[in-house]
């Protein structure tokens, strides 16, 4: 992964490149920005450049090749195990960082999901951020800077990543073989996240978009059978589920913005449906639904029982209707 492989994050990348060329790489960074906008790719490209000793990794030296294969002894990638990054994971990392690098100029750790540090693991990590052993480089990644402990934020150099522009996402999807029409719609609905765009653009999701939205928005607590049935069918569609949830999220956001900027809808072709839902749901209840949907997504990424989780969410969705 080189900087030239990252789409749409020129500002962040130029800061990182400059820090390399000036020999002023910080010991800790906090990358924040919407999920799927290129933070982890940028982090990997940064590591490659630092290890390679150039402004951008050459891609051909042994170090670059090891990184490309995902096996470099001086790069450690930490992710949440279950709901949190646990204190044992941080202790393990600290042991690892205490050794000299094997072959790279420094040891690097990427912590992807820094908002999942809990009190104990966060405090343990603080010590490392205050006094990094040797010349270690720590890169923390999170969708939401404010969700990371304040004390950790203040010890890192912050870099904000922007949501990707619609045209860039569209172009990228087309290059990866998505049909032009699907690429256009997915890019519009994805909120600047390439990852979400790919989920929305997956086979069958966009084709079923209107029917899906009509079906779930019509769920009501007087017909629990239909609600359970919908949850069961969606849970069974493992491939399509993430994309359908993205569609629903983008639709709920549209309900919120409809009152203030009706011309700014992502689902502009469904304005009548957005208007109808805006008329029968309060702003507060839609905001709650968005929170619950984001929570549902994170539950599903942890392999909970999808059908049960969907049932709970649909109950909220169905009971949020006025009158
Ligand atoms: Zn190289």
Descriptive overview:
There is one protein chain. The protein has 323 residues and is an alpha/beta fold. The chain folds into 2 domains: 3-160, Rossmann fold; 202-319, Up-down Bundle (Zinc Finger, Delta Prime, domain 3). Helix content is 53%, strand content 7%. The chain has 15 helices and 5 strands. A 5-stranded parallel β-sheet has the order 2-3-4-1-5, sandwiched between helices. Helix 4 (87-98) packs parallel to helix 5 (119-130), helix 11 packs across helix 15 and helix 14 packs antiparallel against helix 15. Bound molecules: zinc ion. Zinc ion is lined by residues 52, 57-58, 61, 63-64.
SSE arrangement:
Blueprint lengths: L9 H12 L6 E5 L6 H14 L9 H8 L5 E4 L8 H12 L9 E5 L6 H12 L6 E6 L7 H4 L3 E4 L5 H10 L4 H10 L4 H7 L8 H9 L6 H13 L4 H18 L12 H10 L2 H19 L4 H14 L4
Helix pairs in contact: 1-2, 4-5, 7-8, 8-9, 9-12, 11-15, 12-13, 12-14, 14-15
This protein binds zinc ion (ZN).
